[in-house]
Every structure is written in structure tokens, then in C-alpha cells.
Amino acid sequence: MNSFGRAQHNESVSNAIITHDLGKTYGDRPIVRNLDLRVPEGCVYGFLGPNGSGKSTTMKMLLSLVRPTSGEVHIMGRRMQRSTRRSILGGIGSLIEAPPAYGHLTGHENMRLVQRLLGLDQGQVQRAVRTVRLQEHLDKRVRDYSLGMKQRLGIALALAREPRILILDEPTNGLDPAGIEEMRRLLRYLAEQGITVMVSSHLLGEIDRTAQVLGILGNGRLLFQGSREQLFSRSTPDVLIDTAEPERATTLAARWSAVREGHSVRVPGVDQAATARLVSHLVQGGVPVHGVRRQEQSLEDVFMDLTGGRGL
Amino acid sequence: MGAVRAEFLKLKRSLSLVVVIALPVMAVVTGVANTLFSGQQPADGWHTLWLRVVVFYGLFPLTVGLAVLASLVWRVEHQGGNWNALMGRQVSSLRVVLAKTVVLTALALALQVVLVGGVTVAGKVAFDLPGFLPPRYLLVSLVIVVACVPVVALQSALSMVMRSFAAPVAVALPGAVAGVFLLMAGPSALSMALPYGLVGRATQLGTGAFADGGGVGAASVILLITAALGLTAVVVAGATAVLERVDVR
Ligand SMILES: Nc1ncnc2c1ncn2[C@@H]1O[C@H](COP(=O)(O)OP(=O)(O)OP(=O)(O)O)[C@@H](O)[C@H]1O
Ligand SMILES: [Mg+2]
């Protein structure tokens, strides 16, 4: 096997989901464009984007619920399309847009339904229910469930078949902070079990610390894909200079677009070399520099940068 | 088949069970009331009673009832995330379509059982008829149920494609009217090719109404059953192809 072949092989083994140049156009409106997703096996992949950026549409294409206008989807090394979808879907649990379940039936009846439908055993159903901690509420009709309980039941229904991949579209939608925290724990736990979890959200804070890999969508394009650390390193945080003479320092550093901020001066967009030049300029100008530091940057800031301020 | 067993589970607490009981009971009560108000005993005993109840029932109410049942059975799939879940599982499109058709056929059978029971009770209680409903009406009942299958398959397909509850029922009504006109025009291939016409024809079997000769001959039974099965196969194949092709919204 040549090295190219091996590389390809490795790629398909370590990535549970791969897309090539995936695109969807409704009418003449491109909704998703040139998407090259790489979702590594056994991780939590956070799929982020503002409302209407195309997250649900993309996930529907991954499941072949919607046929792409262009490009390809590969799941576990197999091409996903209409002719292959039903067999590939056997290994995927999904929850798209709204939690499924029949409102006139109880949680228990809904679980039994999927058990019959997919020929599952009692143990698989019980494990799924225990994983989402729903065993207390199984005798209630689903229409009387809270939204959080519906989301958990939806995940239990998707989990019961013991899938290798879980695709969850905004599972934290409508949950309170405690519910969101519980969902985070659940997603981490599932990934520890070796399940590849792809989870979308329009709220960064909901999944930032849960996801090992992030994919950020804006206007149907993939703006970023990689780890949290890579995301941070991509944008340059502001430099803050502490000084006893902020007024003079701001004037001196005017060509770096410095702004005064209390007892310090904020200078945006300067890389390491520029920072060195800036500090030396200030020192030569007689400004007493007490400290130079980088602003702690929240993921929100980075996200806003990437999405051109449309984020969150 | 797991998909079929799952379908039956969805009937729990469903309005479809009310339809299955109320519709035939209403047909029986209407037929009995008409006879009682006319002040006469059914001239030809069980035969007259059957004719008064079942022929009218077969012209409109049955078709509309089947259409309502199909809409009820599909309604839950169009709610919330259920459609995405339905299409996001490994269960094939053919199985999805077949499971719905099977459960609707079971409901059509239940309709007929309630109808036969109602006619029997009415004959004994309201008119004190001798003996019991002649067995040939049980054979006719079986043919009626088989003739319901292409109708439920077609209505199921319509309710699958249309999210609206009422729209497929609104299609069934002119369908039933067209079926009646075709039957009034006499026996024709066209009336057998239209599911609504076929089910109307089956309910007239042995009554002498419209194009019926009044007997229950092997030839007409076999023709009805063959036509019903053929139509069902075509409709199921079509519905499966559609479900396989369409994208979710
Ligand atoms: N079937 C469709 N026909 C036409 N336009 C559609 C269709 N489905 C989605 N769109 C459009 O595609 C765009 C992306 O929709 P999508 O639901 O994928 O976004 P999203 O990222 O999931 O948003 P949200 O956070 O609100 O769920 C929207 O502008 C939407 O109006
Ligand atoms: Mg969405």
C-alpha cells in the first residue's frame, strides 16, 4: 500500500463522519456551501452557528433526510445516499429539530414502541432510559412532559439501538441551566463510551467545554473546524498595557489604534513582533510600562469575530 | 414484523377506536330508523335489513371513515420531530408503508365486525327476525374488507404526503362520488380500477342494488378480490417510491 492509500485509509477509520464539498441550494438560494466536515470517532463534536446558518440542513444531509445539491457524505467509511441510507442509519441515533415521541403515549409505551420496531431487547431499552435518568417519569404521557424530559426521552429513543454515532440537533434548546449542565455531562459520558456525538447549538456557552472539536458555521460556510485551542490561537487577543501615564501612552501608540481604558491602554490586533515594537516605542518615549498582558478571551469573542458579529 | 406490532401500539388511546365503533353503529341506527318510521317490517327479512344498512353505508360513509382513519394514523407522524425520526431509522420505506396499510386494514376489519354485529342485534331486537344473519353475508363481509384494502392504501398514501388532516378526506369525498357514478353506469373495468368504486361495488354484492345481480357468485367474488389485491400492490409500490424520494421539510 502506498502512503497515499494509507493516509486515505486512516482518514476513513478515524473520522466517523466526512463530507466533501457538501452543498444545498433551495431555489436559487445557497443554504450550505462547500462543507468539508471531519468528525473524529469517539469525540463530542460541537456544531455551532447562528440561527439560520444551516446546521439543521447539514445534519439532515448527513442522515440523507435531505438530498444534497452537491458533494458527498461518508459515514463510517460508507457513502451515504438514498440507496444505502437505511442500512447506515442502523448505526446512527438522531434527534433533529424537535424531540420525537408520540404525545398520546407514555414514555414507557414510546420506549416499547421503538423496542418492537427495531427488535431490541429489554436490557438495551433499560440502559437507554437509565442513561438519560428518565426511569422515574416513564408512566406519564409524553404530552405532559416538560421540554427537558421530552429532550431526554428523545435521546433515550435514539440511544436504545446502541448507535455508534449520535447526531443531536440543539438538544439543549429550551433547557434551564441545570438541564443544560446535565445534558453536557450526558454528552461527555456518551463520548467516553466510545460514541461519536455530533451536537449542534446556536449558543456557544452551551457546548464549549463539552466539545473536543468545534465546527463553526456562518451563512452556510464552515468558518472554522478544529480544537478549542486552535480556535483561540487563530485570533489575536487585545494587548493591555498597564502604565502610570495612560494618557501619554495612548497618544504615543495612536498608530496602533490604542485606546485608554482606566489605568491601562488597550491595543487590538497586534501580534508578538508588533507587541515588541510597540513596547519599545513606548519605553523610548519615556512611558513607565508596569505590565504588558493579553486580554483573556472568551470563546464568545472569537465566535463573534468569525461570524462577523452575527454570532450568539 | 416489528413495524406492524409498533403500529398497533400507537392505536392506544387513539380516536380511531371511536371511529371504528361510532361509524357502523350510526349506519345501523339510520337504516333501522328509516325502516321503523316507514312502519313496515323488512319485507325480505335479513336481506332487506342488510340492503338498507350496508348499501348506503358503502356509498359514502365507509370511504370517508377509512379516509379519517388514515389521516388519524398518519397525523402523529407529522407532529414534532416524529417525521425526522421515522425517516432517520433503518426501517425501510416499504415497511413503513406496509405497516400503516396493515394497521388500517385491521381497522377496516374491525369496522366490518361492528357493522355485522350491529345488523345482527338490530335484526333480533328491533325486528325480531327469525334465525341469524345468513352466512353468505359473512362471505360478503370478507370481500368488503378485502375491497377496503386498496382504499386504505390510497388514503394512507395521501395522508403520508399531505400534512393536513382534512385534505386527504376532502379527496376521498369526490372519489366516492366518482365511484357511485361509475357504478350507476353499470359494470365496467374503470369502476374496478378506482379503489372507491371497488369498495362500493363490494358492499352491493348480493343485494341486487345498482349493477348487482343479487347473487353472490364465485366469479364476481374472485374478480373483486383480484382487483383489490392488484390495486393495493400498485398503490403500495407507488407510495413506497414517493416516500423513498421525498426530502423532509
Ligand atoms: N425546505 C426548505 N426550503 C427552503 N428553505 C429552507 C428549507 N429548509 C431550510 N431552509 C432555509 O435554510 C436556512 C437554514 O436553515 P436551517 O434550519 O438549516 O438553519 P439552522 O442553522 O438549523 O438554524 P436554527 O438555529 O434556527 O435552527 C434558513 O434560512 C431556512 O429558511
Ligand atoms: Mg436548526
Question: Which secondary structure elements does this structure contain, and how are they paired or packed?
Answer:
The complex is a heterodimer of chains A (312) and B (249).
Chain A: H1 3-14, E1 15-26, E2 29-35, E3 38-40, E4 44-48, H2 55-62, E5 70-75, E6 78-79, H3 85-89, E7 92-95, H4 107-118, H5 122-131, H6 147-159, E8 165-169, H7 177-192, E9 196-201, H8 204-207, E10 213-218, E11 221-227, H9 228-234, E12 239-243, H10 246-252, E13 259-261, E14 264-267, H11 272-284, E15 289-294, H12 299-306
Parallel strand pairs in A: 4-9, 4-10, 7-8, 8-9
Antiparallel strand pairs in A: 1-2, 1-3, 1-5, 5-6, 10-11, 12-14, 12-15, 13-14
Helix pairs in contact in A: 5-6
Chain B: H1 2-10, H2 16-37, H3 46-59, H4 61-75, H5 82-87, H6 93-125, H7 136-161, H8 166-184, H9 189-193, H10 195-204, H11 218-245
The complex binds adenosine-5'-triphosphate and magnesium ion.
Protein model, in words:
The complex is a heterodimer of chains A (312) and B (249). Chain A has helices at 3-14, 55-62, 85-89, 107-118, 122-131, 147-159, 177-192, 204-207, 228-234, 246-252, 272-284, 299-306, and strands spanning 15-26, 29-35, 38-40, 44-48, 70-75, 78-79, 92-95, 165-169, 196-201, 213-218, 221-227, 239-243, 259-261, 264-267, 289-294. Chain A is an alpha/beta fold and 312 residues long. Among the domains of chain A are: 10-91 and 163-232, P-loop containing nucleotide triphosphate hydrolases (Rossmann fold, 3-Layer(aba) Sandwich), CATH 3.40.50.300; 236-296, Alpha-Beta Plaits (2-Layer Sandwich), CATH 3.30.70. The two termini of chain A are 46 Å apart. Chain B has 249 residues and is mostly helical. Chain B is built from eleven helices and no strands. In chain B, α1 crosses α6 (93-125), α2 packs parallel to α6 and α4 crosses α6 (93-125). The longest helix of chain B has 33 residues, at 93-125. The two termini of chain B are 29 Å apart. Residues 26, 31, 49, 51-57, 202 of chain A line the site of adenosine-5'-triphosphate. Magnesium ion binds next to α2 of chain A.
